[in-house]
Amino acid sequence: MDKIKERMNALRVEADNAVQRAETAESKCKQLEQELYSKDQDITSLNHRVTVLEAELEKAEAKVTELKASSEDSEHSKATSENLARKVALLEEELDAAEKNVKETMEKLRQVDVKAEHFERQVQRVEQERDSWEKKYEDMQAKYKSSQAELEDLVKTMENI
After folding, report:
1. Which of 93, 120, 125, 136 has its CA 20 to 30 A from that of 152?
2. At CB < 8 A and 24+ separation, what contacts does 132-141 make?
């Protein structure tokens, strides 16, 4: 009788532990989903930034083209020509900076995408682990009910003796 009680207590402890591990796994899953959501927002933000930088790059290229054409048309003034040359140099520097920024942003976007895939795999693994724990919990519940039924049958049998 004591062994059955000990076994019942052990099964209860095991079931409680399984529930706690399942709750921990669900919490970790939620945390990873939140991180994934945050990374998705970062990707969206970076994509928007890339679009804005590409638009700025196009504007800068258009300005460079306009300034170069303008400088060819208006050679009548040395001062104007020097100003235009400085503007062209500045725009080319801005263009180089914008291109570098676009490259860096694209690299960051690629890294964020890799991280997002990694977190998705982690979420899937945690969900599988949670499902496994839930299955174990259900199995333990079934064993517990079966043991309880056996115990009741044993008690009835002992009472009949």
Report:
1. 136
2. 133/18, 133/21, 133/22, 133/25, 134/22, 136/18, 137/15, 137/18, 137/19, 137/22, 140/11, 140/14, 140/15, 140/18, 141/15
Angle, CA of 13, 128 and 44, to the nearest 5°: 130
What does pTM read for this prediction? Answer: 0.35
CA gap 73, 90 in Å, rounded: 20
The DSSP annotation for 48-100 comes to HHHHHHHHHHHHHHHHHHHHHHHHHH--S-HHHHHHHHHHHHHHHHHHHHHHH
What is the chain's alpha carbon radius of gyration, rounded to the nearest angstrom?
A: 34
pLDDT band at 78 (very low <50, low <70, confident <90, very high): low
pLDDT tens digits along 100-149: 999 999 999 999 899 999 999 999 999 999 999 999 999 999 999 999 99
The tokens for 42 are: 């970062």
Buried (b) or exposed (e) across 31-45, using 16+ Cβ within 10 A? ebbeebeebeeebee
Residues 67, 88 contacting (CB under 8 angstroms) = yes
